[in-house]
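Input for the complex:
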Amino acid sequence: MPATPPGQTRRQVHAYVRERIAEGAPPTVREVQHHFGFKAVQSARQHLEALVQEGALTKEPGRARGYRLPPGEGSAGFLPGAPDLRMVPLLGRVQAGALTEAIEDPQGYVPVEGQPADANLFALTVRGESMLGAGILPGDTVVVRRQHAVRNGEIVVAQVAGEATVKRLRLKRGHVELHPENALFKPIVLDGRDEVNILGRVVEVRRCLT
Amino acid sequence: MPATPPGQTRRQVHAYVRERIAEGAPPTVREVQHHFGFKAVQSARQHLEALVQEGALTKEPGRARGYRLPPGEGSAGFLPGAPDLRMVPLLGRVQAGALTEAIEDPQGYVPVEGQPADANLFALTVRGESMLGAGILPGDTVVVRRQHAVRNGEIVVAQVAGEATVKRLRLKRGHVELHPENALFKPIVLDGRDEVNILGRVVEVRRCLT
DNA sequence: CCATTAAACAGACATTTGTCTGGTAGGTCA
DNA sequence: TGACCTACCAGACAAATGTCTGTTTAATGG
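Predicted:
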Protein backbone atom coordinates (compact mmCIF):
# COMPACT_ATOMS: atom_id res chain seq x y z
CA MET A 1 0.00 0.00 0.00
CA PRO A 2 0.97 3.62 -0.38
CA ALA A 3 2.55 5.94 2.18
CA THR A 4 -0.83 7.30 3.26
CA PRO A 5 -3.84 5.22 4.28
CA PRO A 6 -5.74 4.44 1.08
CA GLY A 7 -8.94 6.36 0.46
CA GLN A 8 -8.54 8.32 3.65
CA THR A 9 -7.80 11.63 2.03
CA ARG A 10 -10.09 10.70 -0.82
CA ARG A 11 -13.22 11.00 1.28
CA GLN A 12 -12.11 14.26 2.78
CA VAL A 13 -11.66 15.64 -0.71
CA HIS A 14 -15.15 14.48 -1.56
CA ALA A 15 -16.55 16.18 1.53
CA TYR A 16 -14.66 19.35 0.71
CA VAL A 17 -16.08 19.47 -2.81
CA ARG A 18 -19.59 19.04 -1.42
CA GLU A 19 -19.02 21.84 1.06
CA ARG A 20 -17.77 24.17 -1.59
CA ILE A 21 -20.67 23.41 -3.89
CA ALA A 22 -22.98 24.17 -1.00
CA GLU A 23 -21.31 27.55 -0.73
CA GLY A 24 -22.07 28.45 -4.30
CA ALA A 25 -19.69 26.80 -6.72
CA PRO A 26 -17.39 23.78 -6.97
CA PRO A 27 -13.72 24.36 -6.10
CA THR A 28 -10.93 24.53 -8.65
CA VAL A 29 -8.27 21.87 -8.70
CA ARG A 30 -5.83 24.29 -7.13
CA GLU A 31 -8.26 25.27 -4.43
CA VAL A 32 -8.47 21.62 -3.45
CA GLN A 33 -4.70 21.45 -3.60
CA HIS A 34 -4.14 24.35 -1.24
CA HIS A 35 -6.93 23.33 1.12
CA PHE A 36 -5.19 20.04 1.75
CA GLY A 37 -1.71 21.51 1.70
CA PHE A 38 -0.62 19.60 -1.38
CA LYS A 39 2.48 21.04 -2.94
CA ALA A 40 1.60 19.79 -6.38
CA VAL A 41 -1.54 20.34 -8.39
CA GLN A 42 -1.45 16.79 -9.59
CA SER A 43 -2.08 15.43 -6.11
CA ALA A 44 -5.44 17.13 -5.88
CA ARG A 45 -6.24 16.17 -9.46
CA GLN A 46 -5.56 12.52 -8.85
CA HIS A 47 -8.01 12.41 -5.97
CA LEU A 48 -10.66 14.26 -7.95
CA GLU A 49 -10.25 12.01 -10.97
CA ALA A 50 -10.34 8.96 -8.73
CA LEU A 51 -13.62 10.19 -7.25
CA VAL A 52 -15.00 10.63 -10.74
CA GLN A 53 -13.81 7.13 -11.56
CA GLU A 54 -15.71 5.61 -8.68
CA GLY A 55 -18.78 7.68 -9.45
CA ALA A 56 -18.63 9.91 -6.39
CA LEU A 57 -18.26 12.96 -8.62
CA THR A 58 -18.88 13.93 -12.18
CA LYS A 59 -16.91 16.39 -14.25
CA GLU A 60 -17.10 18.63 -17.27
CA PRO A 61 -13.68 18.26 -18.84
CA GLY A 62 -11.76 21.38 -19.69
CA ARG A 63 -14.10 23.77 -17.94
CA ALA A 64 -13.34 25.76 -14.84
CA ARG A 65 -14.76 24.27 -11.67
CA GLY A 66 -15.93 21.29 -13.68
CA TYR A 67 -16.41 18.86 -10.82
CA ARG A 68 -20.04 18.33 -9.82
CA LEU A 69 -22.12 16.02 -7.67
CA PRO A 70 -23.76 13.14 -9.51
CA PRO A 71 -27.56 13.38 -9.89
CA GLY A 72 -29.48 12.26 -6.84
CA GLU A 73 -26.54 12.91 -4.58
CA GLY A 74 -27.67 16.48 -4.09
CA SER A 75 -30.58 16.28 -1.72
CA ALA A 76 -29.11 13.84 0.76
CA GLY A 77 -28.53 15.82 3.88
CA PHE A 78 -27.40 19.20 2.62
CA LEU A 79 -28.39 21.76 0.07
CA PRO A 80 -26.11 23.57 -2.31
CA GLY A 81 -26.58 27.30 -2.40
CA ALA A 82 -29.22 27.43 0.30
CA PRO A 83 -27.47 27.80 3.62
CA ASP A 84 -30.70 28.64 5.43
CA LEU A 85 -32.27 25.41 4.22
CA ARG A 86 -31.60 22.03 5.71
CA MET A 87 -32.64 18.50 5.00
CA VAL A 88 -33.62 16.72 8.18
CA PRO A 89 -33.89 12.94 8.38
CA LEU A 90 -37.34 11.39 8.55
CA LEU A 91 -37.06 8.68 11.16
CA GLY A 92 -40.48 7.22 10.56
CA ARG A 93 -42.93 6.06 13.16
CA VAL A 94 -41.22 5.98 16.46
CA GLN A 95 -40.94 2.73 18.30
CA ALA A 96 -39.06 1.52 21.34
CA GLY A 97 -35.85 3.34 22.11
CA ALA A 98 -34.57 2.80 18.61
CA LEU A 99 -34.97 6.48 17.95
CA THR A 100 -31.49 7.74 18.54
CA GLU A 101 -29.87 5.09 16.41
CA ALA A 102 -32.45 5.23 13.66
CA ILE A 103 -30.70 8.26 12.21
CA GLU A 104 -28.36 5.89 10.50
CA ASP A 105 -31.05 4.75 8.13
CA PRO A 106 -33.70 7.42 7.67
CA GLN A 107 -36.77 6.80 5.56
CA GLY A 108 -36.17 10.02 3.74
CA TYR A 109 -35.38 13.68 4.14
CA VAL A 110 -37.58 16.66 4.71
CA PRO A 111 -36.63 20.20 3.70
CA VAL A 112 -36.82 22.65 6.57
CA GLU A 113 -35.97 26.31 6.67
CA GLY A 114 -35.69 29.02 9.25
CA GLN A 115 -33.98 26.85 11.83
CA PRO A 116 -30.54 27.59 13.24
CA ALA A 117 -27.79 25.50 11.75
CA ASP A 118 -26.80 24.08 15.11
CA ALA A 119 -30.31 22.80 15.85
CA ASN A 120 -30.46 19.04 15.99
CA LEU A 121 -33.55 18.27 13.99
CA PHE A 122 -35.35 15.18 12.88
CA ALA A 123 -38.81 14.35 11.60
CA LEU A 124 -41.42 11.83 12.67
CA THR A 125 -44.68 10.54 11.30
CA VAL A 126 -47.51 10.96 13.75
CA ARG A 127 -49.67 8.03 14.84
CA GLY A 128 -52.98 8.26 16.59
CA GLU A 129 -55.51 11.00 16.99
CA SER A 130 -54.57 12.28 20.40
CA MET A 131 -53.55 15.71 19.11
CA LEU A 132 -56.48 16.44 16.84
CA GLY A 133 -57.31 19.57 18.78
CA ALA A 134 -53.89 21.03 18.04
CA GLY A 135 -54.33 20.40 14.34
CA ILE A 136 -52.03 17.39 14.32
CA LEU A 137 -53.63 14.51 12.45
CA PRO A 138 -52.55 10.90 12.03
CA GLY A 139 -50.07 10.67 9.20
CA ASP A 140 -48.80 14.18 9.69
CA THR A 141 -45.08 14.78 9.78
CA VAL A 142 -43.67 16.65 12.73
CA VAL A 143 -40.26 18.27 12.72
CA VAL A 144 -38.63 17.88 16.11
CA ARG A 145 -35.76 19.79 17.63
CA ARG A 146 -33.85 17.47 19.87
CA GLN A 147 -33.68 19.18 23.26
CA HIS A 148 -34.33 18.17 26.84
CA ALA A 149 -35.11 21.59 28.21
CA VAL A 150 -38.67 22.43 27.29
CA ARG A 151 -41.12 24.96 28.54
CA ASN A 152 -44.58 24.61 29.91
CA GLY A 153 -47.24 24.38 27.23
CA GLU A 154 -44.97 23.35 24.40
CA ILE A 155 -45.74 20.36 22.24
CA VAL A 156 -43.09 17.74 22.75
CA VAL A 157 -42.12 14.26 21.72
CA ALA A 158 -41.77 12.24 24.87
CA GLN A 159 -40.69 8.70 25.46
CA VAL A 160 -42.74 6.96 28.12
CA ALA A 161 -42.17 3.30 28.85
CA GLY A 162 -40.35 2.85 25.59
CA GLU A 163 -43.18 4.33 23.58
CA ALA A 164 -42.78 7.74 21.91
CA THR A 165 -45.76 10.06 21.73
CA VAL A 166 -46.58 13.60 20.79
CA LYS A 167 -48.22 15.53 23.60
CA ARG A 168 -48.50 18.97 25.10
CA LEU A 169 -46.31 19.36 28.15
CA ARG A 170 -47.69 20.66 31.44
CA LEU A 171 -45.31 21.23 34.30
CA LYS A 172 -47.13 21.02 37.62
CA ARG A 173 -45.62 21.29 41.04
CA GLY A 174 -43.54 18.24 41.56
CA HIS A 175 -44.69 16.29 38.53
CA VAL A 176 -45.10 16.36 34.79
CA GLU A 177 -48.25 15.89 32.74
CA LEU A 178 -48.51 15.00 29.10
CA HIS A 179 -51.77 16.32 27.77
CA PRO A 180 -53.41 15.07 24.61
CA GLU A 181 -55.45 17.59 22.67
CA ASN A 182 -58.47 15.36 22.32
CA ALA A 183 -61.34 14.92 24.74
CA LEU A 184 -61.35 11.19 24.09
CA PHE A 185 -57.90 10.76 25.56
CA LYS A 186 -56.67 11.22 29.11
CA PRO A 187 -53.59 13.10 30.24
CA ILE A 188 -50.60 11.08 31.32
CA VAL A 189 -49.55 12.05 34.82
CA LEU A 190 -46.04 11.17 35.85
CA ASP A 191 -44.86 11.15 39.44
CA GLY A 192 -41.12 11.11 39.04
CA ARG A 193 -39.35 12.81 36.16
CA ASP A 194 -37.30 9.71 35.51
CA GLU A 195 -40.16 7.87 33.88
CA VAL A 196 -40.35 10.30 31.03
CA ASN A 197 -37.67 11.09 28.51
CA ILE A 198 -38.21 14.27 26.57
CA LEU A 199 -36.84 13.64 23.11
CA GLY A 200 -37.46 17.12 21.82
CA ARG A 201 -39.86 19.84 20.93
CA VAL A 202 -42.15 19.95 17.91
CA VAL A 203 -41.20 22.99 15.84
CA GLU A 204 -43.20 22.29 12.72
CA VAL A 205 -46.20 20.29 11.57
CA ARG A 206 -46.63 19.20 8.00
CA ARG A 207 -49.31 17.38 6.08
CA CYS A 208 -49.33 16.24 2.47
CA LEU A 209 -52.70 15.90 0.77
CA THR A 210 -52.10 13.60 -2.12
CA MET B 1 -33.80 55.14 -24.01
CA PRO B 2 -31.57 52.50 -25.47
CA ALA B 3 -32.24 50.35 -28.50
CA THR B 4 -33.59 47.54 -26.32
CA PRO B 5 -36.14 47.96 -23.54
CA PRO B 6 -34.20 48.80 -20.39
CA GLY B 7 -33.71 46.06 -17.87
CA GLN B 8 -35.48 43.57 -20.05
CA THR B 9 -32.45 41.50 -20.90
CA ARG B 10 -31.10 42.21 -17.46
CA ARG B 11 -33.66 40.05 -15.72
CA GLN B 12 -33.26 37.26 -18.19
CA VAL B 13 -29.55 37.24 -17.47
CA HIS B 14 -30.32 37.06 -13.77
CA ALA B 15 -32.69 34.17 -14.35
CA TYR B 16 -30.10 32.39 -16.46
CA VAL B 17 -27.45 32.72 -13.78
CA ARG B 18 -29.86 31.27 -11.25
CA GLU B 19 -30.66 28.38 -13.53
CA ARG B 20 -27.03 27.59 -14.10
CA ILE B 21 -26.25 27.71 -10.40
CA ALA B 22 -29.12 25.29 -9.90
CA GLU B 23 -27.43 22.96 -12.35
CA GLY B 24 -24.24 22.87 -10.35
CA ALA B 25 -22.13 25.97 -10.91
CA PRO B 26 -22.49 29.59 -11.98
CA PRO B 27 -21.89 30.35 -15.68
CA THR B 28 -18.81 32.06 -17.02
CA VAL B 29 -19.11 35.48 -18.57
CA ARG B 30 -18.70 33.94 -22.01
CA GLU B 31 -21.32 31.31 -21.34
CA VAL B 32 -23.76 34.11 -20.61
CA GLN B 33 -22.57 35.84 -23.76
CA HIS B 34 -23.20 32.87 -26.01
CA HIS B 35 -26.48 31.95 -24.37
CA PHE B 36 -27.90 35.34 -25.26
CA GLY B 37 -26.21 35.49 -28.63
CA PHE B 38 -24.04 38.45 -27.75
CA LYS B 39 -21.17 38.92 -30.14
CA ALA B 40 -19.02 40.62 -27.57
CA VAL B 41 -18.01 39.45 -24.12
CA GLN B 42 -18.45 42.91 -22.75
CA SER B 43 -22.21 42.82 -23.33
CA ALA B 44 -22.66 39.92 -20.97
CA ARG B 45 -20.24 41.44 -18.52
CA GLN B 46 -22.09 44.72 -18.38
CA HIS B 47 -25.32 42.99 -17.49
CA LEU B 48 -23.65 40.88 -14.84
CA GLU B 49 -21.87 43.85 -13.30
CA ALA B 50 -25.10 45.84 -13.37
CA LEU B 51 -26.82 43.02 -11.49
CA VAL B 52 -24.05 43.06 -8.92
CA GLN B 53 -24.46 46.83 -8.67
CA GLU B 54 -28.13 46.54 -7.87
CA GLY B 55 -27.50 43.73 -5.42
CA ALA B 56 -29.14 41.00 -7.45
CA LEU B 57 -25.84 39.13 -7.63
CA THR B 58 -22.55 39.01 -5.82
CA LYS B 59 -19.16 38.26 -7.29
CA GLU B 60 -15.72 37.05 -6.42
CA PRO B 61 -13.47 39.20 -8.60
CA GLY B 62 -10.89 37.50 -10.70
CA ARG B 63 -12.09 33.98 -10.07
CA ALA B 64 -13.69 31.71 -12.60
CA ARG B 65 -17.46 31.56 -12.35
CA GLY B 66 -17.32 34.24 -9.70
CA TYR B 67 -20.92 35.35 -9.84
CA ARG B 68 -23.09 34.06 -7.00
CA LEU B 69 -26.45 34.67 -5.50
CA PRO B 70 -26.50 37.05 -2.53
CA PRO B 71 -27.17 35.45 0.88
CA GLY B 72 -30.84 34.80 1.46
CA GLU B 73 -31.42 34.91 -2.25
CA GLY B 74 -30.21 31.35 -2.47
CA SER B 75 -33.50 29.80 -1.58
CA ALA B 76 -35.52 32.06 -3.81
CA GLY B 77 -37.27 29.92 -6.34
CA PHE B 78 -34.88 27.12 -7.08
CA LEU B 79 -32.51 24.71 -5.44
CA PRO B 80 -29.06 23.79 -6.64
CA GLY B 81 -28.43 20.11 -6.85
CA ALA B 82 -31.86 19.05 -5.63
CA PRO B 83 -34.06 18.56 -8.66
CA ASP B 84 -36.86 17.01 -6.65
CA LEU B 85 -37.00 20.02 -4.40
CA ARG B 86 -38.59 23.32 -5.30
CA MET B 87 -39.04 26.68 -3.69
CA VAL B 88 -42.55 28.00 -4.14
CA PRO B 89 -43.45 31.65 -3.60
CA LEU B 90 -45.40 32.59 -0.49
CA LEU B 91 -48.01 35.05 -1.70
CA GLY B 92 -49.22 36.01 1.73
CA ARG B 93 -52.77 36.48 2.84
CA VAL B 94 -54.93 36.49 -0.20
CA GLN B 95 -56.97 39.52 -0.96
CA ALA B 96 -59.08 40.67 -3.87
CA GLY B 97 -58.06 39.31 -7.26
CA ALA B 98 -54.48 40.42 -6.74
CA LEU B 99 -53.43 36.79 -6.49
CA THR B 100 -52.22 36.12 -9.98
CA GLU B 101 -50.07 39.22 -10.11
CA ALA B 102 -48.77 38.89 -6.59
CA ILE B 103 -46.16 36.41 -7.77
CA GLU B 104 -44.01 39.33 -8.75
CA ASP B 105 -43.35 40.21 -5.15
CA PRO B 106 -43.70 37.20 -2.88
CA GLN B 107 -43.28 37.52 0.87
CA GLY B 108 -40.91 34.63 0.88
CA TYR B 109 -40.31 31.13 -0.38
CA VAL B 110 -41.23 27.74 0.98
CA PRO B 111 -39.33 24.53 0.24
CA VAL B 112 -41.54 21.79 -1.18
CA GLU B 113 -40.61 18.36 -2.35
CA GLY B 114 -42.35 15.51 -4.07
CA GLN B 115 -44.21 17.65 -6.53
CA PRO B 116 -43.81 17.35 -10.29
CA ALA B 117 -41.62 20.04 -11.82
CA ASP B 118 -44.38 21.24 -14.09
CA ALA B 119 -46.81 21.82 -11.23
CA ASN B 120 -47.63 25.47 -10.78
CA LEU B 121 -47.35 25.91 -7.04
CA PHE B 122 -47.69 28.76 -4.63
CA ALA B 123 -48.22 29.14 -0.91
CA LEU B 124 -50.73 31.09 1.14
CA THR B 125 -51.16 31.97 4.77
CA VAL B 126 -54.52 30.85 6.09
CA ARG B 127 -56.89 33.27 7.78
CA GLY B 128 -59.87 32.33 9.87
CA GLU B 129 -60.87 29.17 11.65
CA SER B 130 -63.26 27.73 9.11
CA MET B 131 -61.12 24.65 8.48
CA LEU B 132 -60.29 23.69 12.03
CA GLY B 133 -61.84 20.28 11.54
CA ALA B 134 -59.43 19.50 8.73
CA GLY B 135 -56.47 20.40 10.87
CA ILE B 136 -55.94 23.74 9.17
CA LEU B 137 -55.47 26.48 11.74
CA PRO B 138 -55.21 30.22 11.33
CA GLY B 139 -51.66 31.17 10.48
CA ASP B 140 -50.96 27.87 8.78
CA THR B 141 -49.29 27.88 5.41
CA VAL B 142 -50.98 25.98 2.62
CA VAL B 143 -49.20 24.95 -0.55
CA VAL B 144 -51.52 25.26 -3.51
CA ARG B 145 -51.27 23.71 -6.93
CA ARG B 146 -52.78 26.10 -9.42
CA GLN B 147 -55.41 24.11 -11.29
CA HIS B 148 -59.02 24.62 -12.29
CA ALA B 149 -60.03 21.00 -12.60
CA VAL B 150 -60.65 19.69 -9.12
CA ARG B 151 -62.43 16.65 -7.78
CA ASN B 152 -65.21 16.30 -5.32
CA GLY B 153 -64.06 16.35 -1.72
CA GLU B 154 -60.73 18.02 -2.30
CA ILE B 155 -59.66 21.05 -0.31
CA VAL B 156 -59.38 23.99 -2.63
CA VAL B 157 -58.60 27.67 -2.67
CA ALA B 158 -61.57 29.39 -4.24
CA GLN B 159 -62.17 32.97 -5.12
CA VAL B 160 -65.71 34.06 -4.40
CA ALA B 161 -66.70 37.70 -4.89
CA GLY B 162 -63.08 38.75 -4.92
CA GLU B 163 -62.34 37.04 -1.63
CA ALA B 164 -60.14 33.95 -1.54
CA THR B 165 -60.92 31.21 0.95
CA VAL B 166 -59.86 27.69 1.75
CA LYS B 167 -62.75 25.26 1.71
CA ARG B 168 -63.63 21.67 0.92
CA LEU B 169 -65.26 21.35 -2.47
CA ARG B 170 -68.57 19.52 -2.91
CA LEU B 171 -69.93 19.04 -6.39
CA LYS B 172 -73.70 18.63 -6.28
CA ARG B 173 -75.99 18.28 -9.26
CA GLY B 174 -76.03 21.59 -10.99
CA HIS B 175 -74.17 23.57 -8.38
CA VAL B 176 -71.06 23.83 -6.29
CA GLU B 177 -70.75 23.97 -2.54
CA LEU B 178 -67.79 25.16 -0.53
CA HIS B 179 -67.87 23.46 2.85
CA PRO B 180 -66.01 24.74 5.86
CA GLU B 181 -64.80 22.14 8.33
CA ASN B 182 -66.20 23.86 11.35
CA ALA B 183 -69.69 23.59 12.79
CA LEU B 184 -69.72 27.32 13.48
CA PHE B 185 -69.53 28.16 9.79
CA LYS B 186 -72.04 27.57 7.03
CA PRO B 187 -71.37 26.09 3.59
CA ILE B 188 -71.31 28.46 0.66
CA VAL B 189 -73.78 27.32 -1.99
CA LEU B 190 -73.25 28.63 -5.46
CA ASP B 191 -75.89 28.48 -8.17
CA GLY B 192 -73.90 29.17 -11.31
CA ARG B 193 -70.31 28.08 -11.68
CA ASP B 194 -69.32 31.53 -12.87
CA GLU B 195 -69.48 33.02 -9.41
CA VAL B 196 -66.64 30.90 -8.15
CA ASN B 197 -63.12 30.82 -9.42
CA ILE B 198 -61.12 27.81 -8.37
CA LEU B 199 -57.57 29.01 -7.90
CA GLY B 200 -56.14 25.64 -7.10
CA ARG B 201 -55.98 22.67 -4.83
CA VAL B 202 -54.30 22.46 -1.44
CA VAL B 203 -51.57 19.85 -1.63
CA GLU B 204 -49.81 20.51 1.64
CA VAL B 205 -50.44 22.12 5.01
CA ARG B 206 -47.67 23.49 7.14
CA ARG B 207 -47.43 25.02 10.56
CA CYS B 208 -44.45 26.49 12.37
CA LEU B 209 -44.49 26.43 16.16
CA THR B 210 -42.01 29.03 17.16
C1' DC C 1 15.58 -8.67 -4.59
C1' DC C 2 12.74 -6.59 -8.00
C1' DA C 3 8.39 -5.36 -10.16
C1' DT C 4 4.19 -3.02 -9.08
C1' DT C 5 1.22 0.33 -7.18
C1' DA C 6 -0.59 4.43 -4.76
C1' DA C 7 0.56 8.83 -3.24
C1' DA C 8 2.80 12.93 -3.57
C1' DC C 9 6.19 16.36 -5.86
C1' DA C 10 8.07 19.49 -9.76
C1' DG C 11 7.67 22.04 -13.67
C1' DA C 12 5.61 23.33 -17.71
C1' DC C 13 1.99 24.29 -21.41
C1' DA C 14 -2.56 25.40 -23.48
C1' DT C 15 -7.11 26.63 -22.74
C1' DT C 16 -10.44 28.95 -20.35
C1' DT C 17 -11.87 32.95 -18.38
C1' DG C 18 -11.96 37.66 -16.19
C1' DT C 19 -10.81 42.20 -17.42
C1' DC C 20 -9.50 46.28 -20.01
C1' DT C 21 -9.63 50.03 -23.81
C1' DG C 22 -11.97 51.86 -27.44
C1' DG C 23 -15.70 52.30 -30.88
C1' DT C 24 -20.71 52.32 -32.98
C1' DA C 25 -25.83 52.83 -32.92
C1' DG C 26 -30.02 54.51 -31.25
C1' DG C 27 -32.54 57.04 -27.95
C1' DT C 28 -33.55 61.01 -24.27
C1' DC C 29 -33.25 65.63 -22.71
C1' DA C 30 -31.86 70.39 -22.22
C1' DT D 1 -28.13 70.57 -32.25
C1' DG D 2 -25.11 68.57 -28.77
C1' DA D 3 -24.33 66.33 -24.29
C1' DC D 4 -25.45 62.04 -22.32
C1' DC D 5 -27.06 57.49 -21.61
C1' DT D 6 -27.77 52.44 -22.52
C1' DA D 7 -26.92 48.59 -25.27
C1' DC D 8 -23.89 46.37 -28.08
C1' DC D 9 -19.58 45.29 -30.88
C1' DA D 10 -14.25 44.47 -31.57
C1' DG D 11 -9.94 43.15 -30.18
C1' DA D 12 -6.57 42.29 -26.96
C1' DC D 13 -4.06 41.09 -22.51
C1' DA D 14 -3.29 38.78 -18.09
C1' DA D 15 -4.72 35.89 -14.61
C1' DA D 16 -6.93 31.70 -13.41
C1' DT D 17 -7.40 27.04 -14.38
C1' DG D 18 -7.24 22.31 -16.53
C1' DT D 19 -3.96 19.17 -18.22
C1' DC D 20 0.36 16.85 -19.37
C1' DT D 21 5.14 14.55 -18.64
C1' DG D 22 8.41 12.99 -15.62
C1' DT D 23 10.34 12.01 -10.86
C1' DT D 24 10.43 10.49 -6.01
C1' DT D 25 8.96 7.89 -1.89
C1' DA D 26 6.99 4.21 0.53
C1' DA D 27 4.43 0.08 0.95
C1' DT D 28 3.08 -4.61 -1.11
C1' DG D 29 3.75 -9.07 -3.18
C1' DG D 30 6.04 -12.72 -5.77
